From TrEMBL:
Signal peptide: 1-25
Superkingdom to which the source organism belongs: Bacteria
Organism per entry: Microbacterium marmarense
Record Pfam families: Beta_helix
UniProt xrefs under PROSITE patterns: PROKAR_LIPOPROTEIN
SUPFAM superfamilies listed in its UniProt record: Pectin lyase-like
Domain Right handed beta helix: 157-313
Name of protein: Right-handed parallel beta-helix repeat-containing protein
Keyword vocabulary terms for this entry: Signal
Length: 436
């Protein structure tokens, strides 16, 4: 009887084991979600991160109206990220998260939404990233990088995006080529509203944008081959800067074309402080080579309309200003380059006030020699107001909706003829400026 009981018990154990293992064998492995060409948030995905994982190559993520307190990393090629409503689709970093939207894959398009409250950058496209995520100037990647290890991102578009109250940069292209930044708006950036940096033969078009109440409206650092046309960079601390430096790769920047821009009244008190103390300057060129400015309106900048300088031993060479409309600047054009890196070959074809006065004769003669120089102490002295926290700069008025341009992004941007951009009126994009 004892043996029978043991055999019965063993039979029960074996039966239970077989039942369990049979149940386990019958349970199917989790299926990988099918990638979708069109992902709606909410709906197909409840979060931006889920949408990024779900979207197929060449697909679209449409983000509905609402405040999305997260961030979005796009690592799938040829994806479009689009807001259902530019002013009501808001990605909010809450002053806690480093970025709003980052594209690290070729062919990314970001449009018709608002990004705010990021501690580093509202929107970034970059080829500089690794398993730890994206990196760019301002987020730990200050050392020059190996271009072979980090090839530039190819083909991008940032269009109809509002970026306000972001810690460093509003809209940022870094180590990227063949792209467009257009019809967008930036304010409240503690570094610059729009920034293009570290690219050679960039083939990037910056057109139809508005920057106000930033430390700098638009900044170029070691980026060559840009076309910057028809923008409004007014009511910042500094309107535009074109810089070369040794901190980043690809110095010096060169061969940029800048036409039809309004650069005015850069005396904003409702803005973060500019890191180098800049204030009241329209356009700064430091260490640039063969940059061309034509048909720009540069007015109301109390320190200088155009300020020429050097970065260490990187000199400004071959700067050309054509048909610029100067008015009401502290001085229209000033050269404060140091003796170790004197500016040479500045060429200006219109009437302007100059510092030093001898610069007027040399520049209108397009002399190939060293340009006469003054010092920063000789500039009109303007006291910069105390800066405002990037989170406390007044929010902008609603911006116009952006209609998507369908189709794949081109391998190369066909640049417009810059001579077709006239000197803009003083009220360019006046309907897009101001605060709520």
């Amino acid at each position: 009887m004892r043996v029978r009981r043991r055999l019965a018990s063993l039979a029960l154990v074996v039966t239970a084991f077989l039942t369990v293992t049979a149940g386990c064998a019958a349970t199917p492995a989790p299926e990988t979600p099918t990638a979708l060409d069109f992902v709606q948030v909410p709906g197909d995905a409840e979060t931006l991160a889920e949408a990024s994982e779900l979207v197929a190559e060449g697909g679209t993520i449409e983000i509905g109206a609402g405040v999305w307190t997260e961030q979005l990393l796009v690592s799938t090629p040829d994806v479009t990220v689009r807001g259902a409503d530019r002013n009501a689709t808001i990605i909010d970093g809450e002053g806690l998260r480093p970025y709003g939207v980052v594209g690290i894959a070729d062919g990314v398009r970001i449009e018709n939404l608002t990004v705010t409250g990021a501690t580093f950058y509202g929107v970034l496209v970059t080829g500089l990233h690794d398993e730890a995520g994206p990196a760019a100037h301002g987020a730990g990647a200050y050392e020059p990088f190996d271009p072979d290890a980090f090839p530039p991102l190819q083909r991008f578009a940032i269009q109809g995006v509002t970026a306000h109250n972001n810690g460093l940069y509003g809209i940022y292209a870094f180590n990227a080529q063949h792209g467009v930044i257009s019809d967008s708006y930036a304010s409240g950036s503690a570094d610059s509203g729009f920034y293009v940096g570290q690219c050679e033969t960039c083939n990037i078009l910056v057109e139809g944008n508005v920057a106000e109440r930033n430390a700098v409206g638009f900044e170029n650092a070691n980026a060559s081959g840009l076309t910057v046309v028809g923008n409004r960079f007014s009511d910042n601390r500094v309107g535009m800067t074109f810089l070369s430096n040794y901190v980043e790769a690809f110095s010096p920047q060169r061969d940029n074309e800048v036409a039809g821009n309004l650069v005015s009244d850069n005396v904003s008190a409702d803005s973060p402080s500019q890191a180098d103390g800049g204030f009241g300057i329209g356009i700064g060129v430091s260490g640039g080579v063969d940059d061309l400015f034509i048909n720009n309106r540069v007015t109301g900048n109390p320190r200088a309309g155009v300020l020429i300088s050097n970065t260490e031993d990187l000199a400004t060479i071959g700067l050309t200003l054509q048909l610029t409309q100067f008015a009401n600047n502290g001085v229209d054009v000033a050269n404060v380059s140091a003796e170790r890196a004197p500016a040479t070959g500045t060429c200006i074809d219109e009437a302007f006030t100059a510092l030093p006065a001898a610069l007027l004769e040399a520049a209108t003669a397009c002399s190939e020699g060293e340009d006469p120089a003054a010092t920063t102490a000789d500039l009109p002295q303007v006291e910069a107001p105390q800066g405002v926290s990037f989170l406390k700069v007044a929010a902008p008025v609603d911006q116009p909706q952006f209609s998507s341009a369908a189709g794949m992004l081109p391998d190369e941007i066909v640049m417009p003829d810059i001579t077709t951009y006239p000197v803009p009126s003083a009220d360019l994009f006046a309907d897009r400026i101001g605060t709520r």
